Amino acid sequence: xxxxxxxxxxxxxxxxxxxxxxxxxxxxxxxxxxxxxxxxxxxxxxxxxxxxxxxxxxxxxxxxxxxxxxxxxxxxxxxxx
Length: 81
What we know:
Blueprint: H1 7-11, H2 15-24, H3 26-47, H4 55-80
Helix pairs in contact: 2-3, 3-4
């Protein structure tokens, strides 16, 4: 069973902390929304056993998700400093 990634767990923060960061940073808010969208598309693609999406397309989704997560991580770390 494929599961969505838990962004808060990956970031080492609570959902409340992430919500607070999102309220204070509109760019972060958009990034998290983008991440959730790409994560859902990735999980959906993985659950179909690649019947609808090629391996290259799945890899591109995973790379996009990682790129967005890296941007989110950077913004959260910067806001803590």
